[in-house]
């Protein structure tokens, strides 16, 4: 069985000539600034998805899209003591790498799968495939 995750934020009626698409709570700073972008926006969104799965909260959630945009552009991702007590340092490093504000310092998609946070999954997969 194969599962795929899709972004249903695209399933909305868009204005003609409206170029920015996405679900605001998963959009990266460069998307909001309408800068050129690549796979780093997907790494950002993935980091926010993992944050949600771990903590059951949308990190940049606010009452309006404009307030979400302002939070993304004017604050930096930080893990609280409560967050840190629930995850390993490796997981914290993974989240901080995915949610680095500067897209040039953000963990690259090409190296994401090799992050140590996935070691357990890799080890179990190897055992299952023997």
* Structure annotation, total helices: 7
Largest pleated sheet: none
| Structural class estimated from helices and strands | mainly alpha
Order of helices and strands: HHHHHHH
CATH architectural designation: Orthogonal Bundle
Radius of gyration from the alpha-carbon trace, in angstroms:
16 Å
Mean pLDDT score: 87
Distance between the termini: 19 Å
Shape: globular
> Residue share in helices?
40-55%
Quaternary class: single chain
Number of strands: 0
The total tally of domains equals 1
CATH topology: Transferase(Phosphotransferase), domain 1
Low-confidence stretches: 8-18
Protein model, in words:
The structure is a single chain. α2 crosses α5. The protein contains seven helices and no strands. With about 130 residues, it is mainly α. The chain is about 45% helix and about 0% strand. The two termini are about 20 Å apart. The protein has a single domain (about 10-130), classed as Orthogonal Bundle (Transferase(Phosphotransferase), domain 1), CATH 1.10.510. The model is unreliable at about 10-20 (pLDDT under 50).
Give the gist of this structure.
With 130 residues, the chain is an all-alpha fold. It contains 7 helices and no strands. Helix 2 crosses helix 5.
